[in-house]
Amino acid sequence: MKKDLLLKDGNPQQGNPLGGTLGESLRSQGVSRRSFMKFCATTASMMALPPSMIPMIANALENARRPSVIWLSFQECTGCTESLTRAHTSTVESLIFDAISLDYHHTLQAASGHAAEAAREVAMEENFGNYLLVVDGSIPLDNPGYSTIAGISNLDMLTESAKGAAAIVAVGTCATYGGIPHANPNPTGAVSVKDIIKDKPIINVPGCPPIPVVITGVLAHYLTFGAIPELDHIGRPKVFYGQSIHDRCYRRPFYDKGQFAETFDDEGAKKGWCLYKLGCKGPTTYNACATTKWNNGTSFPIESGHPCIGCSEPDFWDGGGFYKALSLPTEDLSKTAVYAAAGAAAAGVAVSALNRGKKNASNKIHIKTTIDDLTQE
Amino acid sequence: MSASIEKGINAFKRQVDSSVAAFFSSCVHCGLCSEACLFYTETGDPKRTPINKTEPLRRIWKSEFTLMGRLGKMVGLTKKVDDALLEEWQELVYDSCTLCGRCSMVCPVGNDIALMIRKTREGMAAAGQAPEGLIGATNRSVTIGSPMGVRWPALRAQIKHVEEDTGLKIPVDVEDVEYMLLLSSMEIMNFPEFIEAVAKIFAKAGVTWTISSEAFEATNSGIQIGVSDIAAELVQRIVDVADKLRVKTVISPECGHAYMAIRWDGPNLVGKPFNFKVRHILEVLDELRKDGRLKLSGKESQKLTYHDPCQISRRGGVIDEPRKLIDMFAEDFVEMPDGGKMNWCCGAGGGVSANERADEIRLKVFDRKKAQLEEIRPDGIISACSNCRIHLEDGLEEHNMDIPLLSLTETIAEHLAED
Q1: Which of B16, B126, B230 is the closest to A359 by Cβ?
Q2: CA-to-CA separations, A151 to A144, A146, A147, B416, in angstroms, rounded
Q3: What residues of chain A lie within 8 A of the CB of B16, using their CB?
Q4: CATH number for B348
Q5: For range B44-66, the mean pLDDT
Q6: How many domains does one find in chain A?
């Protein structure tokens, strides 16, 4: 019943999703063994696993029971879902989608109102302790009324749904680090998933939005190994977020040679020189854009002539202007400086009044110097 | 009221403004400016470190405008500015600085040290501590109209010669023309070929221009000695005539400080924007080149180099223009080491050449230019400042080096294409 809530290519999905294994499900949908093995090999290479792992992935995936996935969307723009759906049929991404049981997702589910919420409750109950919880969007803490779903505040829905989750995948920079809602001055008091949930494994998949294959790659890893991948210091899978855009950028040789585009229409820009001076955040941004690329490996922003804006890093929105080079200060005045300046200003006003007085006095008694003044001894 | 220490101290106080306060407070005493200064590198004497030359101004800023300085003054700890100090500093502020601005370029905290020395001269002059030679030049500028004492009849005679030689009419006091040409006394007396060159080039290009019989002098001794009141008076003379003749553009000739005096300091000195544009002769020539109105023929095969006058290149920004112009006739052009905005000064600008007392040191610091010239060994040196030209000739003669000095404008005139 629950699967009927989901649409796939406009048709209700068939079969009992919770009953069969992934292998059965894939074969019933006409996925050949060959393309399945190809997917396993791609997944292995994508995650830098040795080729000997391919059969293991295949075995694990084939025999894995299709896990239930609940997808919650809070303060977000649906860009992350848009990114995910850019994964076309017959690609790695759609395989994964056929391989999981997506039981609740605002945007993709057909059901609405009570039926939708009922689907979530049933999935949570039936798979308690085993389902994967995916979250995109940040959670407002200032006032629960800022963002509610079916009358339930985001905070309540998250804490309730997290209780029975095996693991949580925070997708997009809003869910991972607060993202744009969290940007200064953060009017809703937005926070990330990890700020609220402390007792569950959380995988952060940041990006605004994240790369589709990175989202599905993380899910595949979880399905294969039943455990979360190795994470970096801010909770990101190292396989995708282990290297900076800058280190893998094809324009890096120009940076090393000191050849920079100074404006978007100068010779340097036309010649494809480094965009560092135009504000590229590549050196401080860790993501897979430069290697995995976007739109089925077509290109990534720098390849299209635009500097990286650093969207997979915490607080990227507050990192100064997108077009300001990294070496420039990000803020005109830090808070400390404002306080210091306020204190100093009071003293300064007094001193400068005194100094101005002194200067005015010196101007007043100044008599125009003429050549006679110089020549008289 | 003649010059006195009281007047000098008051003048120092008038010079302290937000930029001076910021500069002195941000100086980190790194000493990098010393290595940028010709007068330090060629003498090795640390007292000639650029920032040290501003010491009198610094003491006034500290004792009058800072809290610690004022406290120090109360208990007698703050060092005083008196006649003895200023007398000692005369040699540093006037003889050992050409206001070339190289120090300002290297200062890691962005202090415009050359500007600070220029401001220090204001206090020095008001206190009666300016060199005799500069006082004399300034006196002649104010009373006669030219630091070298050139009056209109002398220029009229030179113009007559040029007209006879070229058969061209030199326009004088003509109204509503495009350009008004200023001249430096040096050009009038030593290089009248410059007037001839401009006349030929402008005739070919079909440019309307004039020379004023009332205000032809481009140089400004007030800037060099450091008396803004006098500098403003000298600028005002040009402004009045340019307005009267309703010219569109005033041309500063091949002279360094004249350009900065009229173009950059000018409007600030007279306290209002000009009704006309100010351009250096090289900028005007490069405009003509771009418009296709300057056509040359024949190439110079000898190896030529260009000496960037500090006030025109470094302080004035006219760097690419001369190179594009030289490219029109030079086959073998070689850049001076550090050429362009970091070019080493010849050693005689900023009033140094008008100050006989500095003759010895200005020839001593020529060693830098000498070493550079020995490195590139040119057959000829082009420049765009008569003062650089005279001093380079002096220095070369002193060392028995035989390299001719050329004016860029004059060399272009020699290569004008015949119709």
Answers
A1: B16
A2: 10, 11, 9, 88
A3: 355, 359
A4: 3.40.50
A5: 93
A6: 3
**Is there a domain that residue B297 lies in?**
yes
A369 vs B67: CB contact, 8 Å cut-off? no
CB A5 within 8 A of CB A111: yes
**A285 lies in the same domain as A361:** no
Please tell me the predicted confidence (pLDDT) of residue A18.
Answer: 41
Report the alpha-carbon distance of residue A4 to residue A12 in Å, rounded: 5
Q: Identify from A352, A356, A360, A362 which residue to disrupt to test chain B contact, counting B C-beta atoms within 10 A and taking the largest count.
A: A362
- Least confident range of A349-363, B266-280, B352-366: A349-363
Per-residue CA distances from B327 to B197, B244, B297 (Å): 18, 38, 12
- In the block, tokens 């003889």 appear at B95
Q: What is the mean pLDDT of residues A320-326?
A: 87
Q: Nearest to residue B120, comparing CAs of B91, B79, B157?
A: B91
> Interface pTM (ipTM) of the complex?
0.70
Query: Cα B359 from chain centroid?
Result: 18
B349/B375 same-domain check: yes
**Count of structural domains, chain B:** 3
CA distance B71 to chain A (A): 13
Contact B14 A363 (CB under 8 A): yes
Interface test with A, best of B142, B144, B234, B236 (most A CBs within 10 A): B142
pTM recorded for the entire structure: 0.59
Query: Average of pLDDT values for A21-49?
Result: 75
Beta strands of B232-386 (E only): which ranges? Answer: 249-252, 277-280, 300-307, 330-333, 380-383
* DSSP type of residue B242: H
Residue A326 included in any domain: no
Q: Are residues A163 and A299 in the same domain?
A: no
Residue A48 banded pLDDT, cuts 50, 70, 90: low
Question: What tokens were used for B244?
Answer: 């009267």
- Which residues of chain B lie closer than 8 angstroms to A355, CB-CB? 16, 64-65
Q: Are residues B84 and B55 in the same domain?
A: yes
Mean pLDDT of A304-310: 95
Transcribe A283-328 into DSSP letters.
GG-B-SHHHH-BTTTTB-GGGGT-----TTSTTGGGSS-TTS-TTS
CATH number at residue A219: 3.40.50.700
Residues B277 and B305 placed together within one structural domain of the fold: no
Best residue in B9, B10, B20, B63 for a mutation probing chain A (most A CBs within 10 Å): B10
Is the confidence at residue A226, as pLDDT, over 80? no
Nearest to A358 among B13, B17, B139 (CB): B13
pLDDT at A81: 86
Distance from CA of B191 to the nearest CA of A (A): 28
How far is A351 from chain B, CA to nearest CA, in Å? Answer: 8
B80 secondary structure, DSSP code? P
- Structure confidence at residue A223 (pLDDT): 72
Q: Do residue B143 and residue A371 have CB atoms under 8 angstroms apart?
A: yes
Out of A112-116, A305-309, A367-371, B125-129, which region has the weakest mean confidence (pLDDT)?
A367-371
Q: What is the per-residue burial (b if ≥16 Cβ within 10 Å, else e) of B162-197?
A: beeebeeebbeeeeebebbbbbbbbbbbebbbbbbb
Range of the domain at B172: 143-289
Residues B79, B147, single domain; the answer is: no
- B142·A373 Cβ contact <8 A: no
DSSP 3-state of B307:
strand
Task: Give the structural domain span for A153.
Answer: 2-240
Q: Which candidate from A355, A365, A368 shows the least CB-CB separation from B229?
A: A368
Cβ proximity of A219 and A98 under 8 Å: no
Contact by Cβ (8 Å): B252, B281: yes
Residue whose pair of structure tokens reads 């003044």 in the numeric block: A373
What are the φ/ψ torsions at residue A166 (nearest 5 degrees)? -75, -40
Higher pLDDT, B14 or A375: B14
Q: Which residues of B touch A356 (CB under 8 A)?
A: none
Same domain for B378 and B304, yes or no, is yes
Same domain, yes or no: A39 and A181: yes
